[in-house]
Amino acid sequence: KKNSSESRGALIVLEGLDRSGKTSQSTRLHSFLDGLGYSVESWRFPDRNTGVGQMISSYLANESQLDDRAIHLLFSANRWEKRRLSDKFAAFASSQAERAASRRASILQIQEELLGFGDDEIIGFLKRLDSHVKGEWAMKAAGISLMETKLRTGKTLIVDRYSYSGVAFSSAKGLDIEWCKAPEMGLLAPDLKAAERGGYGGERYEQLEFQRKVAKSYQTLRDSSWKTIDACCPVEDVEMQIREVVSDCVVTCEKGKSLSQLWS
Ligand code: NYM
Description:
One of its GO terms (biological process) is dTDP biosynthetic process. This is dTMP kinase. It comes from Escallonia rubra. Keywords: ATP-binding, Kinase, Membrane, Nucleotide biosynthesis, Nucleotide-binding, Transferase, Transmembrane, Transmembrane helix. The structure is a single chain. The chain is α/β, with parallel strands linked by helices. Helices cover 50% and strands 10% of the residues. The protein contains 12 helices and 5 strands. The protein has a 5-stranded parallel β-sheet with strand order 2-3-1-4-5, with helices on both faces. Helix 1 crosses helix 12, helix 2 runs antiparallel to helix 3 and helix 9 crosses helix 11. The chain is globular, with a radius of gyration of 20 Å. 34% of the residues are buried. About 2% of the residues have low confidence. The site of 3'-deoxy-3'-aminothymidine monophosphate has 11 residues, from helix 9.
């Protein structure tokens, strides 16, 4: 109940076929929101910088072969691994949450101790504890994901591909859609899903026939909460369409909107 009235950043996901212009649109959107004074961070999946991400990258470049289900699970694992806070912070957060809950330490004291961490996002997050002196929120804080921490500290995340890509691309290969959705369960659900129509391009998946199948899979996943952007028009027009839907979304999240999980 408390969470629903809390101001936070928005989780914005851009989806679409290969070469639909998502990446350049994410950059443009980032600058737009930044210019409006929002605190923004851009993410993308697959995140090729992690160990799992490197396996994915070599698969996509046709440098390695993997079973369809195995690569599906790697894409999913790549999203789960990004949930993780550092061990050091997780341990700290849980001990502090306990202290705050049992009133052994004031929030002020805890904030003070946090300064040693040097990561201002984490500091920002725990600073918010003074409006939740009861400590129950702090308890929760100990177990929350990196993504949720960012959102609750007011950061808006623009994510270039997410679980929908995972399901759309794998089910386009013939895997059962429900099987594809299962490992994504429990990841945060986006506040805005914008799907771009149009475009395809030289990595593994970039053949026209396959892209058609992916488009069909996206269709299956799409419901009324998705915003469809026509990506065939000039980039500036696409940009304007995106700005419009995103502006509404960030305002709603600013006013306070509860977070939910996939597949709700
Ligand atoms: N892809 C991407 C998947 O098959 N499953 C996923 O979960 C994700 C996130 O990877 N053709 C596919 C879609 C793309 C390819 O993505 C690489 P990008 O955005 O080109 O880096």
